């Protein structure tokens, strides 16, 4: 059965309000520092773009790309870096910005990888949390929304590369289980 766009889970207005709150919290916590915000490609691009415009701190940006494991590598938790940072993060205050935490494998791999580069601090800001599906514990420092176990698209999140441009977050009916 083909997939199709289902109900809106989080509206454009709800996202905007929550992103403003997150931006305020980030700006307050990083006041007097110059954090490096690292967006995880490609899903976090829309969120990151909105988030930085709600803060008034001298934040700089960089990006990192990670591969989603296939079904066969899932159990091993193997994740690959497909696009690396363009700057060194040694001694920097790094804030990872991610779209969604599902099993937690991707973000934990990324954390471990970035930690080996000796940042001064390393925190995580995630727009969405599907806690029901967690397989590894993940400390989320800034969280937008906890959501139930549905596959969602929009506001940067995709299915097969599509739907990233939706201004809201919707459930994908007959989509992957997550
Ligand atoms: P994890 O390693 O299982 O936590 O997977 C996280 C990654 O899977 C995210 O960065 C997303 O790219 C993708 N993902 C997980 N759930 C969804 C979803 O509901 N919609 C779109 N992408 C998702
Ligand atoms: Mg992602």
Sheet with most strands: strand arrangement: 4-3-2-5-6-7
- In helices, the fraction of residues equals 10-25%
> Compute the gyration radius: what is it?
16 Å
Extended strand count? 9
The dominant shape is globular
Percentage of residues in DSSP E strands: 25-35%
- Uncertain segments are none
Query: In sequence order, what are the helices and strands, one letter per element?
Result: EHEHEEEHEEEE
Mean pLDDT: 94
Structural class given helices, strands, pairing? Answer: alpha/beta
**What are the distinct ligands in this entry?**
inosinic acid, magnesium ion
First-to-last CA distance? 16 Å
Given the structure, what is the number of helices? 3
Largest sheet: 6 strands, mixed
List the helices and strands and how they pair.
Elements: E1 4-10, H1 12-29, E2 36-41, H2 45-52, E3 60-66, E4 81-83, E5 93-101, H3 105-115, E6 121-129, E7 142-146, E8 152-153, E9 169-173
Parallel strand pairs: 2-3, 2-5, 5-6, 6-7
Antiparallel strand pairs: 1-9, 3-4, 8-9
Helix pairs in contact: 1-2
The structure holds inosinic acid and magnesium ion.
Magnesium ion (MG) is lined by residues 40, 43, 99.
Structure commentary:
By secondary structure, this protein is α/β, with parallel strands linked by helices. It is 21% helix and 30% strand. It is built from 3 helices and 9 strands; from the N terminus they run βαβαβββαββββ. The strands form 2 sheets. A 6-stranded mixed beta sheet has the order 4-3-2-5-6-7, sandwiched between helices. β2 (36-41), α2 (45-52) and β3 (60-66) form a beta-alpha-beta unit. α1 crosses α2 (45-52). The mean pLDDT is 94. Bound molecules: inosinic acid and magnesium ion. The site of inosinic acid (IMP) has 17 residues, from β5, α3 and β8.
């Amino acid at each position: 059965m083909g997939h199709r766009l289902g109900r809106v889970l989080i509206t454009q207005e709800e996202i905007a309000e929550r992103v403003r709150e997150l931006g305020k919290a980030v700006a307050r916590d990083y006041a007097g520092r110059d954090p490096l915000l690292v967006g995880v490609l490609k899903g976090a691009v829309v969120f990151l773009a909105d988030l930085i415009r709600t803060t008034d701190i001298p934040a700089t940006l960089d990006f990192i790309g990670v591969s989603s494991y296939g079904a066969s590598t899932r159990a091993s938790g193997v994740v690959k870096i497909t696009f690396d940072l363009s700057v060194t993060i040694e001694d920097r205050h790094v804030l990872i910005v991610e779209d969604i935490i599902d099993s937690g494998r991707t973000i934990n791999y990324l954390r471990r990888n970035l930690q080996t580069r000796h940042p001064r601090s390393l925190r995580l800001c995630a727009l969405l949390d599907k806690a029901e599906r967690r397989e590894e514990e993940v400390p989320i420092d800034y969280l937008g929304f906890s959501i139930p176990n549905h596959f969602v698209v929009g506001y940067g999140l995709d299915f097969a590369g599509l739907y990233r441009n939706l201004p809201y977050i919707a459930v994908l009916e007959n989509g992957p289980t997550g």
